[in-house]
């Protein structure tokens, strides 16, 4: 499936952006293309941290990608633009993590979202999960010895979630058959 996420021609840091695209396109049927005349597209903006809207908003949609953002951070923001919320805001999160509200500054980033979980289990290893600290503990897994907040790769469940959301099954089957 081709998405409507496209690049503006003036973008810098193209290698990093392409690496983040590859983290997604290598394991899903989602493809990224440069903007031609499309009216809805992603516009990469530097200088405002790492941030993205969730889902397609229409028009020139800003994705903030400043110098401190890694390729993994950018991949996380792209998944927001593709429609994914933070894993730790799932409705069932209190079974798996403890939120320490007294240490949280940006409360909106920890509010529960009644989003579609695609019938997939809670995933502490998701690239969409926050880490455990902002200096002080913010979100802690109930299961001991688990690392959370990785930004290195899509987890197996991240991959399944995207492939379900974008109905990649048939495309991936074809890929394996050829
Ligand atoms: Zn995020």
TrEMBL record:
<keyword id="KW-0479">Metal-binding</keyword>
<dbReference type="GO" id="GO:0006508">
    <property type="term" value="P:proteolysis"/>
</dbReference>
<feature type="binding site">
    <location>
        <position position="80"/>
    </location>
    <ligand>
        <name>Zn(2+)</name>
    </ligand>
</feature>
<feature type="active site">
    <location>
        <position position="77"/>
    </location>
</feature>
<dbReference type="InterPro" id="IPR006026">
    <property type="entry name" value="Peptidase_Metallo"/>
</dbReference>
<keyword id="KW-0862">Zinc</keyword>
<feature type="binding site">
    <location>
        <position position="86"/>
    </location>
    <ligand>
        <name>Zn(2+)</name>
    </ligand>
</feature>
<feature type="domain" description="Peptidase M12A">
    <location>
        <begin position="1"/>
        <end position="169"/>
    </location>
</feature>
<dbReference type="GO" id="GO:0008270">
    <property type="term" value="F:zinc ion binding"/>
</dbReference>
<dbReference type="InterPro" id="IPR034035">
    <property type="entry name" value="Astacin-like_dom"/>
</dbReference>
<dbReference type="GO" id="GO:0004222">
    <property type="term" value="F:metalloendopeptidase activity"/>
</dbReference>
<dbReference type="Pfam" id="PF01400">
    <property type="entry name" value="Astacin"/>
</dbReference>
<keyword id="KW-0482">Metalloprotease</keyword>
<keyword id="KW-0645">Protease</keyword>
<protein>
    <recommendedName>
        <fullName>Metalloendopeptidase</fullName>
        <ecNumber>3.4.24.-</ecNumber>
    </recommendedName>
</protein>
<dbReference type="InterPro" id="IPR024079">
    <property type="entry name" value="MetalloPept_cat_dom_sf"/>
</dbReference>
<feature type="binding site">
    <location>
        <position position="76"/>
    </location>
    <ligand>
        <name>Zn(2+)</name>
    </ligand>
</feature>
<dbReference type="InterPro" id="IPR001506">
    <property type="entry name" value="Peptidase_M12A"/>
</dbReference>
<keyword id="KW-0378">Hydrolase</keyword>
